[in-house]
Amino acid sequence: MISTYQKPLAEVDAARADHLAYLADLEAGGYSVTAGRIDPPTGGIILLDVDTEAEAQELIAKDPYVQRGLATYTATGWHPARGALAGYQRVRPA
User: Fold this and answer.
1) 39-61 per-residue burial string, b: 16 or more CB within 10 A, e: under 16
2) What residues are paired with 32 via a beta bridge?
3) Residue 30 belongs to some domain of the structure
4) Is residue 86 part of a domain?
5) R_g (Cα) of the chain, nearest Å
6) CATH number of the domain where residue 27 is located
7) Residue 94 counted as domain residue
8) Whole-angstrom Cα distance, residue 84 to residue 64?
9) Which of 13, 33, 59, 82 is 20 to 30 A from 24 (CA-CA)?
10) 3-state class of 61 per DSSP?
11) pLDDT one-digit tens code per residue, 2-12
12) Residue 58 and residue 16: Cα distance in Å, rounded?
């Protein structure tokens, strides 16, 4: 998921703690592989481990940035074939 901020950075940053808590929940559930802000800070990327775009959209709808109108996300499918994530195996907590 690639986000684009829809509000000034100061407004986005005011909600950042809630957004980071949301990301921690995704990580704890085994849904987020990695995430980070784009440089310059105009949005970010969340690499989700899901089976469908619909599942990604359902998860991202819970992001405080989305719920507060601070960011929109675009889904982009990807299958790592090389590098550190090649051969990545899904890990979901029991």
Assistant:
1) eeeebbebbbbbeeeeebeebbe
2) 48
3) yes
4) no
5) 13
6) 3.30.70.1060
7) no
8) 30
9) 82
10) coil
11) 999 999 999 99
12) 20
Domain limits for position 69:
2-77
**Which tens digits make up the pLDDT trace of 25-35?**
999 999 999 99
Please count the structural domains in the chain: 1
Give dist(CA 73, CA 45) in Å, integer.
9
Which amino acid type is present at position 75?
Answer: A
In a domain, 82, yes or no: no
Euclidean distance between the first and the last CA atom of the chain, given in angstroms as a whole number: 25
What pLDDT is attached to residue 89? 87
Q: What angle do CA 46, 50, 55 make, to 5 degrees?
A: 95
Amino acid at 41: P
Our CA angle for 87, 47, 36, nearest 5°, is 125
34-86: pLDDT as tens digits:
999 999 999 999 999 999 999 999 999 999 999 999 999 999 998 889 999 99
